[in-house]
């Protein structure tokens, strides 16, 4: 059989080729490329195809269990690495037929985009935590320095079928994160994703949309204008080459990139089976902090968030400060402590508060009576009355004491 | 000085006396009564008062730190047990003056109530976990067997300033718990408490209101009719005798009874400084499971619940089944696993789903083309097509395959 019509030894072309040959997250391909390099792995594949016989390269260890977990149904039953590899080869070879990454790179070039390879200083290093499941390359439109964009970043994800509550909270969250210098990373989908990108843009922040299909396709079509603006204020990213369709499996695979690329993932609104939950669980497995925004228990749109909270996967996040705390630098980005409104009796010690409570709402009382009502000694009562007088909460009336008007319960004023 | 006009050796009268002499949660009194018995402690107090000199009874250990924490400002500076005890005596003696528990027992009798003492089989044993802070007695109206009521119980508490959301959720929760045979315990206050009692009553369940003041006072007045119904379907309970006013301090102290008496505490709605949070934190310290119901992050009424979730004090609870699971018997009361709606492609393995995704929305494709699009081998594609055909998701069209109408994305149908 004939070889492809391009230089298979070119590392860039070879990486681009693998991003088309293997489905995202194919860990057998990942292990092979890690072992031989993209070009070496491609040469090996061509050789194996031509020979019609699969022999594992020296020293390659393919974990058959992981290969099965990566979605290869034919490998699921095999018990040896070679069988996993052989099964993978049958998945890859049909795509060798019309393989030509130069064509896809030309499409990328037309959009002004960049093909990023692992090892590039602009490569977002968080992706390395995916191990054999890491992408072979990233097709990027917009700002190519994803390492800089991801250094201070939060994934804000959620349901396509968002409620106005979820959209409101997302907008607050994304704008607040942008204000704090965080890149908002999301999936470019309708609903929560779109609001996250839009609010980040409106706040002048950087935002990154990680696509399930090719970056030449502004999918979904209805978000075309929004995604074009994302290119101008951040980046559109995909691990599949231009022209690739956003299949369902690729959405799930894409979610691992969002989880791995960012410092934390916050799910704003998600029903039971929302894809956003897979992003959250993936982030948790990658030891990234995960936040979930609670909502009404009567809304199915928050049910997935509540499940993440129940499962202990996520921390409860109610505003941008708390989201920033998840993703940020310890100390620098700590959310402020909450304080309620300050009441009249705040800061009083227990005895003083007890004497204030013991003062009658109407009329006055002598200190001896207050000892009995408050359950305190006379010196303690007299001390407390002094404090209350200074605070303007009690007034002396001859030998008796009364509440000052401002210390009366609201209903008695 | 003269002794009181009642039989101080009567354990019932002595316990009743201590429930008036010491403020709820006074751990010095608790330690003294635990050491000498209520009658012995009362005799000791009378003796000390008459002698004008405090000497600790043999073998009594009063933890000065705990005494200070229990709210005695005068004891806060003392470093020895005797000084803590001396300070406590000055708190208690003013109330010796008009002490007569027989009068308060007569009031209780008029309401048909019961004075429960520790050790009574009807005493709710959970209170024993309060140690020296346990109540000396419980003044009960209604069903006196609190042990039976508390055996399967959940505290449902929350803000007085409830929202219609909080009230709705409380009603669902309390009714669902009543349906499952749980006693709903709350504080009889306006807002969430009142809804919890009312919904439990409406569902035919048992409910207990733990009051901060005496059980003769149906406080707050606006809940009078409701509390009267609670007496008929459960109990009204207080640790302070009839006639006692519901001071602010007593609300906080009362919360510890709710927390200790029940198997779990669920906070439905609470602002930052709601008393319901103190109940929850107390329950957590007593190693009782705590639940918090999330709500809109835009509602201050849920802010306290979210804080409990953030602090890891509470588990996220969204319905009665989950509340029952917190409080119930392992296995018996487990909340059901959640399932989302079942989709067309549910239960398909990864390869089959990939082939379904690869089938064009319009027109048909041959298996060879599907291998390239799905990234699978030909045998895998053919196997998947067979499964899809059986499931009615794909149709053969000569040598090509098309999606069945029901497998088309909604927008393409």
UniProtKB/TrEMBL annotation, chains A, B:
- All copies of domain Smf/DprA SLOG, residue ranges: 115-325
- Gene3D superfamilies the record matches: 3.40.50.450
GO BP annotations listed: DNA-mediated transformation
SUPFAM superfamilies reported in the protein's UniProt record: MCP/YpsA-like (SSF102405)
Family statement: Belongs to the DprA/Smf family.
Q: Which PANTHER family does the record associate with it?
A: PROTEIN SMF
- NCBIfam families, sorted: dprA
Protein name stated in the entry: DNA-protecting protein DprA
